[in-house]
Specification:
Length: 153
Amino acid sequence: MRTNEDVPYKAQYVEELLPKLRKFETEEYAYYLDSVRDWINEIAGRTPNPRALLIDGEVIGVGGVSVSWNGVGEGWFIGSQDVNHNPLYVYKRTMLHLKDAREKNNLHRIQATTVTGNNLTYRWAIKLGFVFEGILYKYGPNGHDYNMYGSIS
């Protein structure tokens, strides 16, 4: 029987997650992950309730909703390929945390970005109730374009 856990974020979880991501992604993506390691820890520090999802004690993803300013939050999530093997668990926990963030922080908007061309993250954003709003050109630290998604309540 598998054990699913939803626990408070710790910086060590990013260190455990990065090698899993490198195993499945390109060398360029590994460079990208290195460039955002500090950003992940920084945004987690600004996130009221950052979380980590674990299965059998192994980290499969970290994320949360930081508050940009009154009424607006920025959703963020970094997950390994194990997310795709446990979609219902990840979906339910993410929906719960989005609802919790909205209520506790009085958010009327949560926005999120994904790398343009990543169809998997596009599908996740849509499934979670986000709407595509446009392209952010040269937005990423490595110059990649990103898609902006918004969820309005």
